[in-house]
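In the previous chapter we treated chains in isolation. Here, by contrast, the input contains two separate entities that must be folded as one system, with a combined length of 479 residues.
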Amino acid sequence: MASQSLFQKYGGFAKVSRVVLTFYDKVLDSEQIGDFFDDIDMSRLVDHQTKFIASTLGGPASYTNDRLRQLHAHIGISDRDFDEMAKLLSEALEEHGFEPGDRMSVMLEIESRRSFIVSLDAA
Amino acid sequence: MSISAINEQLLRAIGVGVAIVGEENLGFRFHNEKFAEWFGEPGASLPDIFPELDLDLLRGGLAADGCYSIECSVRPKRRTLIIALSLSRAISNGERLLVVECQNITRIRELESMIESYSSMVERNTREIERERERAERLLLNIMPKTVYEEFKTFGVVSPQLFKEISVVMLDFIGFTKLVTQVDPNTIVSELNDIFTSFDRISEQFGCERIKTMGDAYLAVAGMPDPNPDHARAVANCAIRFVRYLERRNMSSSIQWNARVGIATGSVVGSVVGVQKCVYDIFGEAVNLASRLQVFADPMQIIAHDGMKDALIEEFALSDLGWHEVRGFGEMRLISLSTDIKGNTARHHRRQDTLD
């Protein structure tokens, strides 16, 4: 990773907070993955996504792969769900002015975690 | 268009949910689209839509302040909305009404959650950084005295300081170079680590401070940074314990550690040296002399110079070694210290006496 994280490059939490809210809106409105969050308390969801995005961009939070697996194992996430989430995040980043190269590196980072999050075999 | 028609259109268009109910029966007179979007088409009265509304508190609040506020959450779609309701009195055509104003404060609550989440992460990071800083501080305290560290922390540099009256003990192992080629390096290092750790404990116990180790040599000092009038006795006590510790250790170890020890009194300058790899070190005659004297020692012998005699003679068994040429110092009268401890020997004899 470069000496300066994307988190710092794009202005720290002041900027990243907007990405979080945009992503949060998109996820809730999504036909594909919105259902997962039907019964989730708002503050828990915001908490989760704040940490998720901060850690993806090299901010203060970080999840170990084991932790990711534990968090997602019981939910039953498919590859399609995962793709949708990645797409929404990429859109949110684009809307907030992240350069294509930086979006690509975020996508690569997320892709490397796929096997710890997806727990449903493709039907 | 009449004023009241404009008002009504305005109420319908704004992004705030608005309803008007009668104060007595709380039946609906008017609601705008936003209100219906959030709460559905209103039924007969306000409590039907807001079961959480406490009517007694409402009446009380209206009587006291003319208005009343609550928060409620609704979930028209997937997202939970948090709505702040504010009810205030109004009179129209002689009828007492309540204006119900509904603000969507979901975003504010979401932001609050996000700030809470983020600040908890940052606080945890701060705690980790603090722990890291303490670890770094402990490491620095290993290589420099606390007073020097304080100066280093405050000014970023340490000015060299002269200590006039201090004593130094220098210990060097005999045949270490040969040992290194004969024994597994891991064993050597772990033995050396063990020995130096014990030396550190002995030093601490007798008021000395280790300055450094150089390969197989060990250098400790007494009387700095805080002055100590007993500095000569402190290093002599250390030197004796170092030797006795090694003797005891050799009894049960396959590797035989033999050392020469020199002790000297004099002055030194102490300072942090280097920028990137800074180390606290001492320089001066006492260090040089101790290192020269150590060379004169037989295995497991402790050598001092005549100048220390007055300070040591009461407590230690000394032998005169006569005059010797010490490189860099000229002719010097040297003495050696017995590794027997006078006090202990005396006690030992007394016990023998009583047994007899």
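The CA atoms of residues 137 and 149 of chain B lie 9 Å apart. Confidence is low (pLDDT under 50) at residues 344-356 of chain B. Compare these points with the single-chain example from earlier in the chapter.
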